[in-house]
Amino acid sequence: MEYALLQAVFLPLLLSPLAYVIGRRFGHTAATWFTFGLLLYCTILIITASIGETYEEHYPWTELFGEFGLLLDGLAAPFAIMIYVLCTILALYSKPYMLHKFHEFYKQQAPKTVYQSDGTVLESLSLEKFVNRQSGVYYALFLVFSMGMLGTVLATNLIEFYIFFEVMLIPAFLLVGFWGDHPRRRIALMFFFWTHVGAVILLLGLLAIGLNVGSFDFADINEADIPTDVVVPAAVAIIIGLGVKLAAFGFHIWLPYAHGSA
């Protein structure tokens, strides 16, 4: 299928505003099934493209950063399939959990029940609107987070990899900040700060390699003879940056708080 990888990566991003609109107008269930259907379609694209030999797509980007490519080979395919299969399942699995979360947050913000003259509860309409709005935001962020994970696996360029890696940070920060356990905002800021510190260090390492080689494409870097005085500090920066962002042992300051809150 033409543009299979491009669709699988960017459809969730481009249609995330639609998930928000559907959730807000038609409710939690509609947003759930829309997200599930979209991710299922993208999962089928990935599985179909992975059948047979290595599949890759390349698109013009900018001369400064090299070529924008998406590669599905024997290494990337299992991770790409795993990411979207799990995300597709989680779109359904998280539905009752998040619905419960939305109701809890509504009770915290509107603890008083208001009755109309006929005895019916006035707050019921407000609750429905609150849940719908929350559902739309949640599934929109969920789609962006999913595409960020897939993009890091399929990237063929250091800057492309970095951008996708950072795209995941934004929805993850908002998911924890909006619906994490208390003190969720402080923990979200801690998560954002430490992972951003790691991202800056990682970027320095990637720039050192790319600027020395004259290209950020993995293929060009693989064939280049990079001097040791560049490789060593760049490798140290990349290891530290990834260690912080992945919460490896020794760099896991934010992990217990963020995962506990999430």
List keywords for this structure.
262 residues; mainly alpha; 2 domains; two-stranded antiparallel ribbon; 11 helices; ND/Mrp_TM
What does this structure look like?
The chain has 262 residues and is mainly alpha-helical. The protein folds into two domains: 1-167; 183-262. The chain contains eleven helices and two strands. Strands 1-2 form a two-stranded antiparallel sheet. Strand 1 (55-62) and strand 2 (66-72) form a beta hairpin. The protein is globular. The two termini are 37 Å apart. The model has no long low-confidence stretch (mean pLDDT 88). Keywords: Cell membrane, Membrane, Transmembrane, Transmembrane helix. It comes from marine metagenome. It is a multi-pass membrane protein. GO terms for molecular function: NADH dehydrogenase (ubiquinone) activity. This is NADH:quinone oxidoreductase/Mrp antiporter transmembrane domain-containing protein.
What characteristic shape results from the CA principal axes? globular
Number of domains: 2
> Mean pLDDT score, rounded?
88
Strand elements, count: 2
Tell me roughly what share of residues is in helical segments.
over 70%
Task: Give the helix/strand class.
Answer: mainly alpha
GO biological process, one term: ATP synthesis coupled electron transport
Subcellular location: Cell membrane
GO cellular component, one term: plasma membrane
Keywords: Cell membrane, Membrane, Transmembrane, Transmembrane helix
Quick description:
By secondary structure, this protein is mainly α. Helix content is 74%, strand content 6%.
Summarize the topology.
Blueprint: H1 4-14, H2 16-26, H3 28-50, E1 55-62, E2 66-72, H4 76-109, H5 123-154, H6 158-167, H7 169-179, H8 184-213, H9 218-223, H10 228-245, H11 255-261
Antiparallel strand pairs: 1-2
